[in-house]
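ENCODED BACKBONE
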Amino acid sequence: MDQKPESIKKSALSKDEIKKAQELIKHLEKRPESNLFSKPVDYKALGLIDYPLIISNPMDLSTVKKKLKSSKYSNSKEFLKDLSLIWENCKTYNQTGSPIYQHAEMMEVYMKKYIDKHSLFVEKAVKRPREDIFSMPLTNNEALSFESKIELAEKIRRAPVELLAEIVKIVESQCKPAIEELDTERIQIKMNALDKDSFDKIFNLINGACNNDEAKPSKKQKC
């Protein structure tokens, strides 16, 4: 019995989708920050012995391009998921606010803006309720925008230590999956895993603290 080899299985991506995906990657590679994400992390050479323990599915731009070229993606969502994984892995492993963490955030923003500007990979309305890779399902079915997550992340980064302690308490008590302990001294709040109620409570807490500070002439910090 003749059996078709698996290698000739074609990708479900159309020629137009492949072209758009390639153009998106080219756009990202024009950014100077992209050099940090162009190849797999050589954790052995860098002495990052814990990297494979923390990052279970490494990803980089060269790997995405190879998978795209060899028709490994059955749909555009898989392609976008891998791209997003590059930035997510970086933010998971590295300390919040560190230079490389910020570079990952910038690359994520460049990607999202390009996708929005060119209306790439827009799903048809006939499919099941939208499952956006840039936002997780929320408990009250309200979607948080990508921009609002970036805004809150920036506010948290600039928050004083005592306010950070309050934020951690909120996340631990109301949305524990959104908090991850990186080591004995570092934790990370996953913006994509925050539910709407926790997000709003943190946002209001920070804004309230900022408003109180602005009312005091001696305070110069702005949130």
Notes: Residues 1-9, 123-142, 218-222 have pLDDT under 50 and may be disordered. The chain is about 50% helix and 5% strand. The two ends are 69 Å apart (CA to CA). The first helix runs from residue 15 to 29.
